[in-house]
Design brief:
Blueprint (H helix, E strand, L loop, with lengths): L4 E10 L3 E4 H5 L6 H7 L4 E4 L7 H15 L9 E5 L10 H9 L5 E5 L5 H14 L6 E8 L17 E11 L4 E9 L7 E3 L10 H5 L5 E3 L1 H22 L8 E4 L4 H11 L10 H4 L6 H9 L8 E8 L3 E8 L3
Parallel strand pairs: 4-5, 4-6, 11-12
Antiparallel strand pairs: 1-7, 2-3, 6-7, 8-13, 9-10, 12-13
Helix pairs in contact: 3-4, 7-8
This protein binds oxa(dethia)-CoA.
The site of oxa(dethia)-CoA has 19 residues, from α2, α7 and β12.
Length: 328
């Protein structure tokens, strides 16, 4: 049991149909395609439309695809960890709702919220269950309907976010594959720079909080930007160097918050630019879904044994980096 590692054995994903363009955003707030492309690097983002639709609907689609692709019967799944900052509701957990929608009946499930680092932390947490040998099929799903907490009257934040979900299967292996090293960090000093002001226990919803538009993402962009570049690059370089990974052959799967942040982290790591996974232009920042959405899109290019560094930064502040050897 002591030598078991957790390896990713499949990926599924789901993005909603509706595409919100920079031109449409420019008709809603005072912005332009040129500003958004230059400052953030986003052209389009997908938005989940429909009354009564939430993160679990996207999560369920991603998990269904994952189970099909990995030829897994829903009853075989042991654990579902759902990473989200936009749960369907405060309780029950969105993972429980996804299990119900997919027909996963023999698993236990819980949600994990670490801002935009949720999926990275989730990989760490889920891998520990697998490494014990007790849990054989663990589903880790990132699902965020960011449009539910995005203020489409605030030009500083509304171009950034999109809706999506993606999921991975983690299974035990004795091969030298899977999750091999990590460096995860939190500093709560960041909690006033990126947060939702109302709707939690400190400030429950009232007419005043709604009038003050406090149920949306609040972000002090420049402060978050500086922290994100420094901390993602520091931890990614540390994990890469202490494991003697070659920057010419290692992939970088960075959280997709801003193309300038991604470029800066890639440069600090000296990674071959063709091995930096980037899809922010199409999807924007989908929070818990960015990293597994990269895996889904790069799945065909990845080969068994490829080295990947995952690096993220998010609300909290939370950040970190992980070394993964791709499993198939
Ligand atoms: O995922 C979790 C982690 N989050 C992040 O990593 C996000 C980090 N931050 C960022 O990506 C960037 O700070 C933003 C994209 C949020 C903002 O970009 P910025 O280059 O830092 O812009 P800024 O906030 O410094 O604003 C520059 C100017 C301001 O105008 P003045 O004061 O110079 O006249 C803003 O009012 O750009 C203006 N501005 C806009 N103009 C057109 C802000 N938003 C817009 C907009 N369109 N959408």
């Amino acid at each position: 049991m002591g030598n078991l590692r957790a390896v990713i054995t499949g990926v599924g994903h789901y993005v909603p149909d509706y595409i919100l363009t920079n031109d449409e955003l420019s008709s809603m707030v005072d912005t332009s395609d040129e500003w958004i492309m230059t400052r953030i690097g986003i052209k389009t983002r997908h938005i989940l439309k429909g009354v009564g639709k939430g993160s679990s609907d996207m999560g369920a689609e991603a998990v269904k695809q994952l189970l099909e692709k990995t030829h897994t019967n829903p009853e075989e799944v042991d654990l579902v960890v759902c990473c989200t900052v936009t749960p369907d509701m405060l309780f029950p957990g969105t993972g429980a709702i996804i299990c119900d929608k997919v027909g996963i009946t023999n698993a236990f499930s819980f949600d994990l919220n670490a801002g935009c680092s949720s999926f990275l932390y989730g990989l760490s947490v889920a891998s520990k269950f697998v490494e014990t040998g007790r849990y054989k099929k663990v589903v880790l799903v990132g699902a965020d309907k960011m449009s539910a907490i995005t203020d489409y009257q605030d030009r500083a934040t509304c171009p950034i976010f999109g809706d999506a979900s993606a999921a991975v299967m983690l299974e035990p292996t004795t091969e030298y594959l899977g999750i091999l090293d990590e460096e995860l960090k939190t500093d709560g000093v960041g909690r006033t720079h990126l947060y939702q002001k109302a709707g939690g226990s400190v400030k429950p919803p009232t007419h005043d909080t709604i009038d003050a538009r406090e149920h949306y993402v609040y972000q002090e962009g420049q402060i978050v930007f500086k922290w994100a570049v420094a901390k993602m690059a520091d931890t990614a370089c540390e994990v890469m160097q202490r494991n003697h990974l070659d920057p010419n052959t290692t992939w970088l799967a960075p959280h997709q918050a801003n193309l300038r942040i991604i470029d800066a982290v890639g440069r600090r790591m000296n990674i071959d630019p063709s091995r930096v996974m980037i899809n922010i232009e199409k999807y924007g920042n989908t929070t818990s879904a960015t990293v597994p959405l990269l895996f889904a899109e790069w799945e065909q290019l990845l080969k068994k044994g490829d080295d990947i560094i995952v690096a993220t930064f998010g609300a909290g502040f939370t950040w970190g980096a992980m070394w993964i050897k791709w499993g198939y």
